[in-house]
UniProtKB/TrEMBL annotation, chains A, B:
Any GO BP: proteolysis involved in protein catabolic process
GO cellular component: proteasome core complex
Protein name: Peptidase
InterPro entries: Ntn_hydrolases_N (IPR029055), Proteasome_sua/b (IPR001353), UCP009120_prtse (IPR016545)
Amino acid sequence: MTYCVGLKLDAGLVLLSDTRTNAGLDNIASYRKTFFFETPGERVIAIMTAGSLSVTQTTIARLEEAAEDADDANSVLNAPSMLRVASIIGETLARTRREIVEQHRDLSQQASASMIVAGQRRGGDMRMFLIYPEGNFIEATEDTPFLQIGEHKYGKPILDRVVRRDTSLADAQKAVLLSMDSTLRSNLSVGMPLDLSVIKRDACAISLKRRIEEGDPDFMKMSAAWSAALRDSFTRIEV
Amino acid sequence: MTYCVGLKLDAGLVLLSDTRTNAGLDNIASYRKTFFFETPGERVIAIMTAGSLSVTQTTIARLEEAAEDADDANSVLNAPSMLRVASIIGETLARTRREIVEQHRDLSQQASASMIVAGQRRGGDMRMFLIYPEGNFIEATEDTPFLQIGEHKYGKPILDRVVRRDTSLADAQKAVLLSMDSTLRSNLSVGMPLDLSVIKRDACAISLKRRIEEGDPDFMKMSAAWSAALRDSFTRIEV
């Protein structure tokens, strides 16, 4: 499994993904799940992926190939809007998934994937989409400033409680890290290291890209402080 | 959906269930999901249910019918051990489910249910089981003092952090209520009122049975205090 969460706030976009991939419980590996397409100052697009690795890798490879060709109508770096970017990614994902499902037909195996796409092009609005395996998508709005894919339930209560559109980028990073921390503790199929990224409003470029490794002292400290704070709050609450 | 959680602690058993039942999103009703079989001082058995209402109601009705007949070999009030109680309930559940699935065959509809069974008979140990739709079961142990059925993920992080076998019954009630509170906030298909029950070790009787209605002032106060404590802890944590 996977856990990826994206926040679209007034101040910018905050994205966090884990890196654990498994084929069964006895075949576990680390793969990056956050990818960028960027022309700094002009446009930035971040994609986070969940699902079958063969589907997500092939989809990203196809998007990268198209983006290298300045004349390709399917280049996310050429698309005239973030909405068109979401369409291109949705179409590429759906086509890739269909091909792989077709290859697997004799095994009646499933292959599926979903993605969070977030970004901004100069002169346009910041936008964030959740792309479904079939290629259709939904968009984060003012009412619902976050999107999640993969193992999303453990980490939702903290987001429900603290994330609003006017949350600061510093608080937003804390919120996604604590949301991930709850997920890591409760589900073995989500694992370190983590990839944290921040895209400030109107920067049209990646403002922060941080890989958080297993045993990262800051993350461990935050995780321990949060556990202690929860236990302390628990003790103080009266029923 | 449903959320039921049971704790088996040194001090006793603590059980909490919601009451929301839905057939689709436009057909929502309240049904009790906690049931008792009791000969006070001799034996007490609590059952919490999740899944298709037709399966759980018929299973409970059959168990009640058998328990009314003192000679019935399938009476949970006669069974020589809690292990046998779990077997009887598992067999009744599996048989009922099979019959209903058979009735539904032409519709290719699913019907499934699972249960948490907890109790003690005089002279025996307290035990708690999770019964699967197929009738097999697992048991709560010292290492894993809680079992959950239904929509279990939202409420697991708090249990993972605060519940240990030596947790007091007062803290345990707080823990299951906060676990339910997180679930209620994040998932519409779990709803008030709630049924909270406590069975003290060696009482072999229901020690506490409390129905918590929508708008219950104590529950609302606890919920608000927990939200405030979480937000306060969140603010104080440094990344």
